[in-house]
Amino acid sequence: MSETTTPPTTSTSPARAYVIAGSEATGGAGIQADLRTFQALGAYGFGTLTCIVSFDPANNWAHRFVPVDPQVIADQIEVGLACHAPEVVKIGMLGTPATIDTVATSIAAHPWRHVVLDPVLICKGQEPGAALDTDNALRERILPLATVITPNVFEARTLAGMDAIESVDDLAEAARRIHALGPQYVLAKGGVELPGPDAVDVLFDGERTIVLTTPKIGEERVSGAGCTVAAAVTALLAQGASVEEAVRAAKGVVTQGIRDRLSSAAPFDAVHLVG
Ligand code: PXL
After folding, report:
1. The pLDDT value given to residue 124
2. Among 7, 76, 115, 178, which is least packed by CB within 10 angstroms?
3. Does ligand 1 lie within 6 Å of residue 33's CB atom?
């Protein structure tokens, strides 16, 4: 009896979107949100894991944080680059100075078109001294490699060295100060933190300040919003968009994902990209 087989349809064409980030075990944030976003936008996603965050449901959902061994991170980056030769990478949570050293060394040796940095500064499970060392290492070693950085209000305030960000003008000032640290484009996100009826972001490219505004959807933070914005920018850049196009489209993607949010037993909702 002869069997007929269907020939494979080998594809080399989909844009490849790469992420170096941590796992957040509820799936709301971290690499899970990044890879879902890549998929939703039609990019082929792959990733390198830097750390594992497991909230503790028996202790007020506090963060439990475990870093991945630096050599294991270097190995993942090595094989990811060797396999796919990506042109665009998103960097999410790194978590320790040793991780930052490893990632900085590995990515500095590769010719990127874009390095999108979501400067995740704090994990509530870390003790403050360790968190400060990590912030400083991120600023010194990763920021200069980033072409696009996407700080929220807290991150923008910390990186810009400002006491407060309470207006769109403050957000624009923070974006200018962070631009001076190295990245070509700064997307400073007001989110629900900035007072007023709108979710306002500022994109600064060293010359132009573009203000992006959309009505807020509630006043609660939604988990995974920051990850989703940076991941959407990454996927769209991998597909050939300009930074301004990618940022504008990413705001639409995350806004819809916040509207379609997912609730669970956790005390926070998560972004959900439907369809
Ligand atoms: O949303 C920031 C974030 C990013 N990455 C990981 C996280 C979190 C927040 O909890 O755990 C792995």
Report:
1. 57
2. 7
3. no
